[in-house]
Design goal:
- By secondary structure, this protein is mainly alpha-helical.
- The protein has 14 helices and two strands, in the order ααααααααββαααααα.
- α2 crosses α5, α6 packs antiparallel against α7 and α11 crosses α14.
- The longest helix has 22 residues.
Length: about 300
């Protein structure tokens, strides 16, 4: 099975163009299933047996994961991984399994993200200066990162993949490679370029055309965890709520556009959402805000005393 898993992971990254992190998550879920299979059947997993796995086996695996306090979202992803494996086995080895199609994925409650107050975003600049007081280049880096995510609505991974060559040429837009290697064009405000240019000018490391611009203290490419830590430090300094994260900056970008009258299709393109239903979550957020305003302000709403 190890050889088959290796071929499957290669198929995900090279053919399906999945990111390395996604492929790694799929592989982890599949190995979790195979480990469970060995305990469940008291036999090591082999391809011919895996092909005959039934609904009882799949449900027992999900139940076992639930006992391990694995979240519904992770279990839904695990089922997606197994379905993808069986589709691959069908194409590559003509192995079919009808039982997998009879298993429903765990329902995942969709949480509404919260937008950051624009005033709090403005205050982040002075907070960064105070936090990185002894390292001006890091302050410039952190502010450039915040402005880039907030101003263009990028995912953390998309912002951190920005390379020196992307900062050259036409400065009205940026070409972004998002999830599934899908390409999109996002507009860039002059203030964003100004923040990026300032950071590049004070960065102590040599940045060649193919190098990512956001660097760690040691000059290595900045990781997503480092970016999250930047927001954590800002959040603590300004005493902001826990929902203030890099993703919340992206969410604030979309919420602001929606509030100013942008249509959902345009926001979907700017965010790089594959499905409009994902973008429609912002409509629910906007509706919630409107209802709060109505209940507190309208004389007939009962909110006023």
């Amino acid at each position: 099975m190890n050889n088959i898993i290796a071929v499957f992971v290669e198929y995900l990254t090279k053919t399906k163009k999945y990111s390395a992190n996604t492929a790694m998550a799929y592989e982890s879920n599949i190995r979790d299933f195979l480990n469970f299979w060995e305990i469940y059947t008291a036999n090591p997993p082999v391809l011919r047996d895996i092909a005959r796995a039934d609904t009882t086996c799949f449900r027992a695996w999900l139940a076992d994961r639930k006992k391990r306090n694995i979240s519904a979202a992770s279990n839904a992803q695990a089922m997606s991984s197994i379905r993808a494996l069986y589709r691959f086995l069908g194409k590559k080895y003509n192995i079919k399994n009808e039982a997998i199609s009879l298993i429903s994925s765990p329902r995942v409650p969709r949480k509404l993200s919260r937008a950051i107050n624009p005033i709090d975003v403005d205050n982040m600049k002075s907070a960064i200066r105070a936090i990185d007081n002894n390292a001006p280049w890091m302050a410039a880096r952190d502010w450039a990162l915040v402005v880039l995510i907030y101003g263009c609505g990028l995912r953390i991974s998309e912002a951190l993949s920005l390379r020196m060559r992307d900062t050259r040429g036409d400065r009205k837009t940026l070409r972004i490679i998002g999830k599934g290697r899908k390409e999109r064009i996002v507009p860039v405000l002059p203030a964003i370029w100004a923040a990026i240019d300032k950071y590049i000018s004070v960065c102590p490391f040599i940045l060649n055309a193919d190098d990512v611009i956001f660097r760690s203290v040691r000059g290595l490419p900045m990781s997503s965890r480092m970016a999250e830590k930047v927001l954590e430090n800002i959040r603590c300094y300004l005493q902001l709520p826990d929902y203030v994260t890099p993703h919340a900056l992206r969410h604030t970008f979309a919420t602001a556009l929606l509030s100013d009258g942008a249509d959902l299709r345009s926001i979907q393109e700017l965010l790089g959402h594959a499905s409009l239903s994902t973008t429609q979550l912002y409509t629910k957020v906007n509706t919630r805000d409107l209802l709060n305003i109505y209940s507190n302000a309208h004389p007939r709403a009962g909110g006023k005393k």
